[in-house]
Structures are given as structure tokens and as C-alpha cells.
Structures
1.
Amino acid sequence: MHTVILRFESAASGYTLSLLEGDDDGNAWPDAPSAKADVPAADVAALLKNAPALDDDTRAETADEKTGEALFGLLCRGDVEPKVAAVLEADTPCRFILDLRADELEALPWEALRYRRRFLFVDQTQIWARGTISPARPFVERAWPLKVMIVVGCGPGSQIAYEEELDAVQSALRNMGHAAEYVVLHRPSKERILDEYEKIRPHVFHFIGHGRAAVDGMKAHLAVEIPEGKQKWAWNDDDIAETFRGGKAPIVAVINACGSASMGNGGFSVARAFLDAGSGAAVGMQGKVPGKSAAKFAEALYGALADGGGATRSLPEIVARARSKVKQLDQRAAWALPVLALRVRPERTLPISFAPAPRYVQIQARVPEFAPKEPFVNRRDERRFLRLCLDGEDPRAPSVTNDDLGQQPNKGPALPPVFVLKGPARIGKTRLAHWMLEHAERRGVRGAYLDWNRADARRDIVAVLRFIRDGERGAASILRCAFADEPKAFSRFNRDLNELLQGKVPPDEDPASVVADAGLEHDTSRAKQEDLIQRLFDSFCDALARATTSTPTVLALDQFDAIKDSPALDYLRPRLFNVIAQNKIPGLRLLLVVTEDEYRRMDLDSLPQRSIDLSIWPSDQFGELLREYGGRVWENPASKQLFETLVKVWVKPFGPEQLRDVHKVCVMAGAGAPPGGNS
């Protein structure tokens, strides 16, 4: 995309304005000015003195127009003006970046910029944003799902439409299905914020509440109430910068609070604190934003993200769309209050691999297991564990960060490629297994899911191997027939199978052409049965290695109870699972979904693996869990409030320890059981 950078910086005689432009092709970036102009200091001072505040509701709308036109006159003069005008008149897709290198320049309300009756910052074709960008700055690639942390710093009576904003943001994120996960903290302590932040390492940090610009010796800060004492604690700019420094900062900070982007005394703001700490982009408010307008902006922002924007639009485009939406709904200048400032290139402001892999795009409509579902209620820790395992990180190792953006893997010793998901029946293990496979497919790793309930009724060892190779006969979901398109990879195994079942010794060399399975019966009474089975497994493991060399695969095996009485179960553990655990099939990772009894019966504790126990939620999470569940079930606000009241009534007198089955409580409330089991 054509990029125009307007660099505005202090000079000996005032200010210098430089224009840099070029077509952004790959890593190309404009690096030398094609035009320059001098701007007298008096012109900037006059605008700083006379431009009305955007949050002044008493002024006439013509004041916004005059301010916008005056700003354009300040920005476009000398040799710069005709070049900017030519790009604007062409009306072709491009982006403008205001690189403001003086605090007083940042204090001007550039978002009101106007050219020929056109407010530029709401344009969705020619996108405008502020930014001082480092072209080579790294960014996080391991980005599915998009992780969002929402901190609500206020409560009832705060004159902020926080419930409306929170509902809008949650609704948009829920519409993204498994592509997003989020956590909401209501009026937390600083320690709670930091603890939760370390757990999930969000890509986006979103704050709802009160903010203050730096003024009269007071630092710029966010105000967070504490429910018990009805007091507030201030999270100031210095504290924010120190908290997130060293590679811990979120990629994007959305600070939907008054004055969070206002350049107060000393030129500091809360939004700048996040940028200084390492965030790639920050969205804040320049002035006092009405509660309803803040809620509408957040609704439009996350709505644009949820409808596919994360895969097709950069954050500046999404913010422009949100501003435009607010402008349609509110004739005041509230649409111009949001300030987006960049530190990375626009296309890198959102995690780049939020866009799914091409194969995932192709198969999503044909895989029922990946159809849009309601997001999980809780289970954040379990999903993080599975995601880190799949990405090659040890979930039990301490985090290691770089000094720029995001978290870098602490891989240490190679993880065993076998993962075990265990827990009681009907607690959501299968749903989590599908989630992990969806994560794999989005990352470009093939997913395969096999339910032993669908295997051949006899379930002898040959039938079991054929089932892994072929999947479910007639299954519409290719997730359940993952290797069906690998005839060459299994050709030698098919030849060996045909020979061995006839009592012959297969040759050592590969067959000259593709061989099909002849479908011969397995005579379990044949002598030297152990030798036959070992040769079959050796050949089968070789076939799996061939099938996964160019297409890494995660194979999930579920419902082992269906083959608990089969001799095949005795062979799978030592002759297949062990081989995979020893990384002798490098392209294959194995996910075993088992109950506690199956775990013990197969002696999986002695198998090199990473396991996660899926059990009922800790008792101290019941209140939060019920509120989250109720918020998703009840659409009517009055019903939702009633549900929350009932939760308080139940949890307080009985105590969370007595609420051992959360779903019985939900059914008592008339909400019914959640979809997908205990998810």
C-alpha cells in the first residue's frame, strides 16, 4: 500500500515538516524525504492557544470544521502541500502516518483534520494515524487465539456506561468464537491485574473506567476502585511503564478512559506509558469522553475486529471504521477523541498470524467440529497449557521475554510429543481436544481426531491400525479421515499387511507402484502372532513418518473405553505410543483423551508425556464462573441482573465448597446446561 509519512519535528527556527513516501512492498519503507517545509513556531503556538477542546460540548459544530482546516493548513505548506493534495485528490487506497516529534505537536487535536469538507481521520480508504515507527521492530507471530484482557476500573454510580461497553466488547469477542479468548477483571487490585496478566499474556489490554491527564503535579493515571472499601488506587504512567517494561507490554493497549491520551504537564500520558513500555500501538482519549460515546466506540472497534477485520485490516483501518460509526451516531466531536499512536508498522499492529492458515480456511466449512461455537466458560489455564504444548513450549517452565514485543518461547529441552488430557466422563475433554486441533489447523498443522466408538466392531489390532489409517468410513469431516489422502505414504504398509496376513515375509524394498490394502482377514490363531504384530507396527510407524514428513500432524485419540476389552489396547501403548513419545516420528504429535481409569490401565504415567487434569473448577472460582456463564446465557439485561443476584444468594449462604456441581446450579436458574458438555 502507498504510504505517506509526515514527520513534524522541532528545529532551530521553529519546526521542520518532512514528507516521505513510497509503496510499501514487502520490507520496503520510505526512508528519505521527497519534500520539506519550515513551519514557524508562532503558527503552532496560535493553534495550541485557539483550538477549542474536542470535549467541549458547548461549541458550535463549525468550530470543529475550522479547527480541522487550520490543522491542515499547519500540516500542508511549501513543497509538502502539492504532494499531499495530489494523493488526497487521487482518492486511492493509501495510508498517512503523522510522525510527531514534539510534545506540543502531540497535544494538538489532529484527529479533527479536515480537507475540502472531508474529515480525514474517519476515511476508510485513505487511513490516517499517528506514529513514530521503527520499521525493523519485531512482532508476535504465535497469535491464535487473539487474547484480550479487560479491566473494569469502575462500578455502579461512576457515570460511565461501563456495563454497556463491557457487554458490547464481550459480544464482539464471542462472535469470533474460538478465534478469541478473554478475561474480565472487575475493580481488581494491582496485584490481581499483574497475576492474571502474567498467566495469559494478552495481545490486547483494554481498560474501562476513569483516567486523568497529568496536571498540577499529579501524574497521568488510571483510577481503579476497590469494591470492599469503595476506595480507588491510581495506576500512574511511571508505574505502567515500569510494570510492562522488558518485553511484557501488550501488543495493543486500548485505554477507553478520559484524558488517557491527553498530553498533560511534562508531556506524559497513560497511552504513551504503554508505548514507552513496548506496546506496538495504543488507543487513548484526548479529553473527557462521554460514557455513551466511549461505549459506542468500543462496540464499533471490536465489532470491526470480529467481522473479519483481524485477518484483513490493520488496526488503523479498524479504528477509522470505529470513528466513522461513532460519528454517525453522535453529532458531537466524540468521534475525534480516540487517538491511535503506532510504534510498529500498521500491518503489524495486530498479531499477524491471527489470519488462519490457508488449509484451515478451506476446511473450516467442511469440519463440523470447527463450526462456530459459544466460547468456553473459563478453562483458560487448560487451553493455555495445550496451546503451549503444541507450540513447543514447556507450560511448566518460567517465561522468558525479549526486550521488545511479546513473549518469546522458552523451549529448553525438547518436549515429548505426547500430551494426555485426562478427567472424568462428560467434563469437556472432547471439546478441548477439538479446540487444540483447531489451534493446530490455524497454525498450519494437520489435525486428526479418532473416536474409538466408531472403530471396527471387532477391534483387533489390524482393524485398529486400519482405523487410524482410514479414519471413519463415510465421515463428512476430513478431521476424522486425516490420512485418507496419503495413499503413497501407506503403500508399503499396505503391501506388508497383505503379505503378512498371508503368512509371507515382505521384501525389504519399497513397492514399485502404489499398493492398496486387499482387505484380508486377520487370523488371530496364526502361530508367531507376536512377530507378525511387531512387523506390522514397524511398517505402520514407518508409514506414519512418511505421511507426516511434509505435513506435520496432531493425532487425537478419544473414547478408549470402547476398546478396553480388546487385545489391541495392550499393543498400542508399547508399540505405537512409545515410538511417538521417543520422537521417532518427528512430524507426529499425539493427544490422548482418557479417563483416570484408562490412564491407569494403559500405564500412561510411565510414558514420556505432558498431562493435564481436567476436573471441576476450584471452589473459589464459582462466583466468577456463574456470573460469566449467566452473562452469556441471558440476553435480557433484567434477566441477567436477576441471575447475578441469584448467584450471590446461592454462593454467600452455602459457601462455594458446597457448590460442587456448577451445572446443577445453572439448571436451577433455568439456564440449562451449556453446549459441548462441561466447557
Note: The first helix runs from residue 41 to 50.
2.
Amino acid sequence: MKMIAAHIKRLATIGIVCSITIFSAYSFPCRGPVLAQAAEAGKASLEEELLARQEKELAEKSKAEREEWERAAKEEAKRLEKELLEEARIEAEARKKALRAEKEEVERLKREAAAEAKLAEEKKRKAEAEQERLVRQAKKKAAAAERKKEQLEAGKKRKAEAALRKQEARQEQKARWYKDVGYIGEGEAPKEPTLMSLDECIETAVANSLQLQVATKSVKLAEMRVWEARRNMLPTFKAVWQEYTGRINGQRYYGKKEYMEGQQPIFHGGELFFTMKQAETNLSIVKKDYDRIRNELVLQVRRAYFSLAKSVENLRVQKELAAEIGKIAGMTKKEAEEGLVSKIEALNVEAKTNQTHFQLVSAEGDVEVAELILKQAMYLAPNDRVSIAPKFKFRRFNVDFERTLRAAFMYRPEIAINAMSIEYYKYEKDVAKAKGWPKIDFMGNWGMAKEHYVAEDFDYTPVTGDVERKLSQQWYAGIKASMPAWGNTMEYSQTREQWVPVVSTYQGTQATTTTVTLNLLDNLKYFSDKQSADIDLSRAKQEFVKVKQDVTLEVKEGCFNYQKSLIEIDTALKKVEYQTKDLEFMKFRRQMDEALDSDVIESMTKLGQEKFGHSQAMNDYYVSVASINKAVGLEDYLKLEEEPGSAAKK
């Protein structure tokens, strides 16, 4: 702005001078040339002055700009120097942190190596102690056997024979115990493993299950109870033969009777009928209880089978992982010996290799435990070996909660059992009520009998001749009734009878007898039975509601676990795919010397973990399908199809 004002001022001065010059020329013609020369001279001086001022201003301006540039350059240099110092400080701190982290990692690896070494030493010590214990136990057994042998040889023959008989009896008892319980004694060699499919495992478990054997016997017992209840509605008969002797008034006599006696229920208020229906309902309950036990057993076997399959798959993955990592560890060890690899890297690879070995040993233990659980579910002996090679076709079932719940209410054994239990206790209540109705029975007796005096001899031989009486007909028939009322019982009976003569009479007797009896407060149990039956019925209804709630919850959990397992399977597959690509990339980087062997091993370990996660997700899928089948009560509600050739035939 100052420069512009100065230029404007100079231009104004020049304009004024020119105006005066022109005015003077026109006003004073005689002085025109002089003034023109003066004007030219003034103009030249002004131009020189203007140029001088411009040069001076330009010099001053360039000097100010140079000073401004130098000041800005100094400030920029100071700023750059400050930034470089800050970057150097940050880089130094980062290097210090990296060195500290590397040092901590080395310390951690050392601690892990020391811990693993300590663990290995502890295992070795325990193994040695166990071996010493077994050796001592074997020596003790051998010494005991030797002492027993010496005692047997030194004893007498009678004691030896007695001990031998006792041992044989003990062996026989032990054999029966082994047969009943399935116990395997010491010294039996393990059997060869049998490759079995899932269906074969279930069939074996069903055949060996002691619970199912008891349930089968319970079904037979319930059938017997049904026949017993039906038999109580039919007439009862018995045949009697009697022969007796004695004395009357000092004279010996002899008697003989051959007769049949029977009784037929006519009216018991429906008690016998309701008892029969109750027994039939109990038979249905016992059969459904057999299905319930089988349903739970099938789920137990399937869970154990799928758990063993998961453990076998994990063992296979760990073996492959251990083999690959072992090759890398061997090469790293050689490189470390030649000084091509740092000591920290060698220790890291060794630590990861030991961790892989530990995982392999754990996987082997998991397989043994899972196999033992499966054998226990199948009721097999400990020395039996079971091998499986499952390969199921993966299917996405359309599982609808409402439809599955309806199927469970229709087929679940527990639902049917509790529904029939309500019916059972209704019959029990009817039986208790029927005891308050009158009871009417028909009874009768018909047969032949005689009595007469005998001679005084010791063999009780009847006398011959007219004195001996012949077998004559005798009988009786009648009706017996009872009526409970307010805890009392009134009984009524009427019989008509005909009897043969006895030794004290010479003619038979005929009679009609009517008897009325009142028993006071002898039937108070009737009221407690009714109350107990009512309580049992209410309890059965409450149990039915609870079972429905439990089944609903079980079906809901099964459907939820199934949907969750599908998501887990999809996620696990994506993780396996990602980790496989990451391992390939890490191997490529290792070939380009951009990654370490420990990085490759770590990527392999992560891939093994993701494969185990996939196996776990598949196990959850199979278990959720089996749980839904168990919740519904049908073994093949959601059928898992096993691919051909996945299990060898026996």
C-alpha cells in the first residue's frame, strides 16, 4: 500500500509540472523555449529521481524479502530439526520397547521350557514310582504265591484237598459273578479291536443293558399280574382228600373225606373289574417304561459314539500336525547348530514343538477315555476293544419347534407313561370307591365222606362187616354278603347243607343256617384308602403337567442347539479355509525369508485348532440331532445316514 501511494504522489507531481510548463508556454510566448528546456530538464531530473527511488525501494524490498526468507528458512530448519529429534526419540523408545518385549518373550519361553521340563521330570518320576510300585506288587504277589504253594505242599493231604475244594467253589462263584456282572479278571489279554457302526453299537448296548433286562422281566411280571387280576373274576375251586383217626369216649374211630369246594364272586361293586383294568394299565406303563429306558440308552450310546469320533478325528489331525512340525523342528535344530538361526528362534520352535507333542498325548488320552465311555454305555468288558470309522452324510434338516413338540407329545414315552399313570390312579380311585359297595359271593361244597369205629389194633384197620360205613354224599351251598357303612361292616350269610353221619350219630344232618354279623369300626381304612387314591391321582396329574413342561423345554433346547450347531459349522468351515490360506501365505513368506519357522509352526497350530473346532461343531450337530430324536421319542425322527463302507462288517 505504501508503494502504491508513493507512485500516485510521483505521478501527481509530474502532472503538475507539465501543466505549469504548458501554461507558461502559451502565456509567455517569448519565454517558451526557455521554459520548454526547463521543463525537459525538470522532467529528466524527476525521471532520474524516480528511477533512483525505484531502485532504492527495490533494493529495500529485496533486502526485506531476503531477511524474511532467511527468517522463514531458520524457522523451518528449527522445525525440521525438532521433528527429526522427536522421530528419533520415538524410534528409540520403540526400539527400547521391542527389546524389552523380546527380552520378556525370551524369559517367558525360558519359563515355559523350564515348566515343561519340570513337568516331564515329574511325569518321569511318577512313571518310575509307578513302575517300582508295580514291581513291588508283582514281587509281593509272587512271594505270596510262593508262600501259599509252600503251605499247600507242607500241609497235610486232607487240608490240601479241602483247600482245593474251597478254591474250586470260589472259582465257580467268581465265574458266576463274572457272568452276571461282566467283570473281567486280571491276566486277561486285551481283545482285538472290532470296527463297529453306530447301529451295531446301539444293538450291542440294547442286548447287554441290565436295565433293559430288568425292564423285560418287569413286563413279564406285569403280564402275570394281569392274568392274576383276570383270574380273580373267575370261580375258584379246590379238591380235598382227608383221612383221619382218633378216639371218642375211649373208642377209636376212622374217617375219610373226598370233596370239592368252590366260590364265585357275584358282585363286588366293580372292584375286581377295576383291579383288572388297573393291572392292564400297569402293563402298558411298564412297556412304555421299557421304551423310555431304551430311548435314554440310545442317546447315551450316540453321545459316546460321537465323542469318540471327535476324539479320533482330533488325534488324526494332531498326528499330521506333529509330523509336519517335527520336520520343521529338525531343520531348525540343524540350522541353529550351524549358527544360521538365532538362539531365541530355536527356543521358540522347540517350545512350540513340545506344545504340539503335549497336544498329541492329550488327544491320545481323550481317545482312550472316549472309548472307555462308549464301552461302558454298551456294557462291554474293559478288555474289549472298539474301533469306529464314522462318516455321516451332512444334512440340513427343517426343524420346526411346533411340529417337533407335537411329535414329542405324541411319541415321547414319558408323556404316555404319565398319561397312563393318571388312568392307573383313576382306576385306583374307582377300586377304593368300590370297596364301599356290597359284596356278594356264592360258595359251595360237594363230596363223599364217612366216619365209623374201628377195632383196637395198632394199624387202624377198619372192622369188616355191617359196622363199616360206606362213603356217602355230603354238600353245602350258600350266599355270603357284606355291606360297609360308616366304618362298620355288616355281614350276612345263608347256607343249606347236608352232612354224613359221624361216629357219635347214626343219621346224617340237614340244615339251613342264616347268620347276620355286625363288625363295629373295623373298616375305617376305607376312608383313608379313598383319600390316598385321590392324592395319588392329583400327584399323577401334577407329574403329567411337569413332564409336559420338561419335554417342551427339552425340545426347545434341542432345536436351539441344532440351529446353533449349524452356525458353528459354517463359522468353523470359514475359519479352516482362512487359516489354510494363511498357512500357504506364511509358507510362501518363509521361502522368501520374510517369516520365521516359528511363525509357520504357529500358523499350523492355529489350523489344527480350527480343524478341532470344526470337529467339535460337527459333534455338537450330531448330538443335537440325537437329542431331538430322544426328546421326540423316535430314534429316526431326524435320520443320520451313514455312508457305505464307513464301518466294516463283522
Note: The first helix runs from residue 2 to 27.
